[in-house]
UniProtKB/TrEMBL annotation:
<feature type="domain" description="HTH marR-type">
    <location>
        <begin position="4"/>
        <end position="136"/>
    </location>
</feature>
<protein>
    <recommendedName>
        <fullName>DNA-binding transcriptional regulator, MarR family</fullName>
    </recommendedName>
</protein>
<keyword id="KW-0804">Transcription</keyword>
<dbReference type="InterPro" id="IPR036390">
    <property type="entry name" value="WH_DNA-bd_sf"/>
</dbReference>
<dbReference type="Pfam" id="PF01047">
    <property type="entry name" value="MarR"/>
</dbReference>
<dbReference type="GO" id="GO:0003677">
    <property type="term" value="F:DNA binding"/>
</dbReference>
<dbReference type="InterPro" id="IPR023187">
    <property type="entry name" value="Tscrpt_reg_MarR-type_CS"/>
</dbReference>
<keyword id="KW-0805">Transcription regulation</keyword>
<feature type="domain" description="HTH cro/C1-type">
    <location>
        <begin position="39"/>
        <end position="66"/>
    </location>
</feature>
<dbReference type="InterPro" id="IPR036388">
    <property type="entry name" value="WH-like_DNA-bd_sf"/>
</dbReference>
<dbReference type="InterPro" id="IPR001387">
    <property type="entry name" value="Cro/C1-type_HTH"/>
</dbReference>
<dbReference type="InterPro" id="IPR000835">
    <property type="entry name" value="HTH_MarR-typ"/>
</dbReference>
<dbReference type="GO" id="GO:0003700">
    <property type="term" value="F:DNA-binding transcription factor activity"/>
</dbReference>
<dbReference type="InterPro" id="IPR011991">
    <property type="entry name" value="ArsR-like_HTH"/>
</dbReference>
<keyword id="KW-0238">DNA-binding</keyword>
Length: 141
């Protein structure tokens, strides 16, 4: 059996291809280190803490901190101290981040439209069900 015949390997290759496609066709400053999912999550969950963001995206705190620092330096997000717990940083998009967000959403919609052409509704439902099963299996303790 070849490695490319394995489900896990195929998923990794597919994820890599999708990431490459997204990075070459979107805002270059957001293409590194998974910054696009950070921007989307921070926009959709305004005031999320760095800790909660790391947990939600299943990334270690150091990786999230570095990505946040890059995005903050680029002017896309800002960190604010929590009002109750001053040790906690809450994350928000800046006006520049808010300006970019619709472009990211539009781009993700284009990818979805492209995939819609490849699958019937039934196939999409099955595929999403299979992916959920993979995620649940991998995250089982």
């Amino acid at each position: 059996m070849k490695l490319t015949d394995l489900i896990g390997t195929s998923l990794l290759y597919t994820a890599k291809e999708l990431k490459w496609y997204m990075e070459k066709n979107t805002i270059s400053e957001l293409s590194g280190s998974g910054q696009m999912p950070l921007l989307v999550t921070i926009r959709e969950e305004r005031g999320i803490s760095q800790k909660d963001l790391a947990e939600k995206l299943k990334k270690d705190k150091t990786t999230i901190a570095k990505a946040i620092k890059r995005m903050e330096s680029a002017g896309y997000i800002e960190r604010r101290r929590g009002e109750i717990d001053k040790r906690v940083y809450k994350l928000y998009l800046t006006p520049k981040g808010e300006e970019v967000y619709p472009k990211v959403v539009e781009y993700l919609g284009e990818i979805e439209a492209k995939l819609d052409k490849a699958f019937t509704q039934n196939e999409k439902e099955q595929f999403l069900s299979f992916l959920e099963k993979v995620r649940n299996t991998i995250t089982e303790d």
